[in-house]
Design a protein that fits this description.
Layout lengths: L2 H5 L3 E2 L3 E5 L4 H5 L20 H11 L11 E9 L4 E9 L5 E8 L8 H15 L4 E7 L3 H9 L3 E12 L2 E11 L1 H4 L11
Parallel strand pairs: 5-6
Antiparallel strand pairs: 1-2, 2-3, 3-4, 4-5, 6-8, 7-8
Pfam families: Acetyltransf_3
GO molecular function: protein N-terminal-serine acetyltransferase activity; protein-N-terminal-alanine acetyltransferase activity
Protein name: N-acetyltransferase domain-containing protein
Length: about 200
């Protein structure tokens, strides 16, 4: 089994199955990703066509971040017990696996059901199990729902700063959050794993 397969498996929670992204997930996700409300706090473009989303997912399926450095960009599609997509979770992990930056989107029709906390919780647990020392997230100050999810998962706001992104013609304020691996809180010597 490859190292990537170990850190990028199917993840399961009580209600969700998080599958490593594949091109065919475009059919599950396309309609839900058309809702403009999902882009209120982020500058990702709405997918133009199913084919374009399928191509994007084919690139993401490699697990490799664009550019030099060997970073990983891991993406999972979150699916409920009825086979409906609920959204996605993702992590960009440095090559030494010392830290990860996470992001997530819950489709509008699936919001307010606890799926964000459940899916992001599974993602964070997987990252820590594979040796990540710190998991970080950046949230637009106006995105109160995401702030609550992170707080419930044990993240701490570490700083606020002017956003690098212009969304809706405005540059907002971003809050940076982090959660340190449990073994490191007490001064333990958790050793990050190197990705081959």
């Amino acid at each position: 089994m490859s190292t990537l397969a170990v850190i990028f498996p199917v993840l399961r929670t009580t209600r969700l199955r998080l599958e490593p992204v594949r091109p065919e997930h475009a059919d599950l996700m396309f309609e839900g990703l058309q809702d403009p409300s999902l882009y209120r706090y982020q500058n990702d473009p709405i997918p133009a066509t199913r084919a374009a989303l399928r191509e994007r997912y084919a690139r993401l399926a490699s697990g490799r971040a664009p550019g030099p450095g060997g970073a990983l960009w891991l993406n999972w599609i979150s699916i409920d017990a009825d086979g409906a997509a609920t959204g996605y979770v993702q992590a960009t992990v440095d090559a030494a696996f010392a830290h990860a930056e996470i992001g997530y989107v819950i489709l509008a029709a699936q919001q307010r059901r606890g799926y964000a906390r459940e899916g992001v919780g599974a993602l964070v647990a997987q990252l820590f199990a594979c040796g990540a020392g710190v998991v970080r997230a950046t949230v637009d100050r106006r995105n109160v729902a995401s702030q609550r999810v992170l707080a419930r998962l044990g993240f701490t706001r570490v700083r606020s700063r002017r956003s690098d992104d212009v969304i809706g013609g405005m540059r907002g304020i971003d809050d940076d959050y982090e959660r340190i691996a449990p073994a490191r809180r007490g001064g333990g010597a958790a050793v990050p794993k190197t990705i081959a």
